[in-house]
Design a protein that fits this description.
Chain A is mainly beta. Chain A is built from no helices and eleven strands. Helix content of chain B is 0%, strand content 53%. Chain B is an all-beta fold. Classes of the chains: A mainly beta, B mainly beta.
Chain lengths: 116, 114
């Protein structure tokens, strides 16, 4: 059983389209995250939800909107896709927010988004 | 403004030898540090961590050293095995922020040659 799963694994789409990436975790964690890994391989936090409440909202375009229907799911919707959105997007989860052990985040396999 | 830096993009070592991966940080508020390992087409997986109240943490073949005055940490892998070949990410957090936010370095690709 996969602990953190993402769908789809690959996503190829045209500029201007709207797409969604789904994430589910079966670890019973309270906190979920979205990261973006760009072409320079940096992993950067985008959003974080704790018990369905938005905790982290980094400086990302408002075309990106996370949605957490419940604690086990955090989906990422992207509107009006642009070439620069091409990247690998990782979902992650952790058991809490505080430091120490709670920061051990478990990552999904990633979704490679290619915008043509 | 990259607060966590891994200045060596790649490292190649012989099987059985020691691998040393380095990481520097600039934010003195960071109090918890983690190393993640990533294979191609997979997500990062947690490897080992260290709190700022310690200067060393060991787990089997993996040891992380923290030098707070130099704002530097390193991961030692002894002995290195071909299966250790992967990208290693250093990450840091401010525990008191209660956000769970991790700041990652850009990764170091380790190749262990048989």
């Amino acid at each position: 059983d996969t602990a953190v799963s993402q769908t789809p694994k690959y996503l190829v789409t045209q500029m201007g389209n709207d797409k969604s990436i789904k994430c589910e975790q079966n670890l019973g964690h309270d906190t979920m995250y979205w990261y973006k890994q760009d072409s320079k391989k940096f992993l950067k936090i985008m959003f974080s939800y704790n018990n369905k409440e938005l905790i982290i909202n980094e400086t990302v375009p408002n075309r990106f909107s996370p949605k957490s229907p419940d604690k086990a799911h955090l989906n990422l919707h992207i509107n009006s896709l642009e070439l620069g959105d091409s990247a690998v997007y990782f979902c992650a989860s952790s058991s809490g927010l505080a430091g120490g052990l709670y920061n051990e985040q478990f990552f999904g396999p990633g979704t490679r988004l290619t915008v043509l | 403004d990259q607060q966590v830096k891994q200045n060596s993009p790649s490292l190649s070592v012989q099987e059985g030898r020691i691998s040393i991966l380095n990481c520097d940080y600039t934010n003195s508020m960071f109090d918890y540090f983690l190393w993640y390992k990533k294979y191609p087409a997979e997500g990062p997986t947690f490897l080992i961590s260290i709190s700022s109240i310690k200067d060393k943490n060991e787990d089997g073949r993996f040891t992380v050293f923290l030098n707070k005055s130099a704002k530097h940490l390193s991961l030692h892998i002894v002995p290195s095995q071909p299966g250790d070949s992967a990208v290693y990410f250093c990450a840091a957090s401010v525990g008191s922020s209660n956000t769970g936010k991790l700041i990652f370095g850009q990764g170091t690709t380790l190749q262990v040659k048989p």
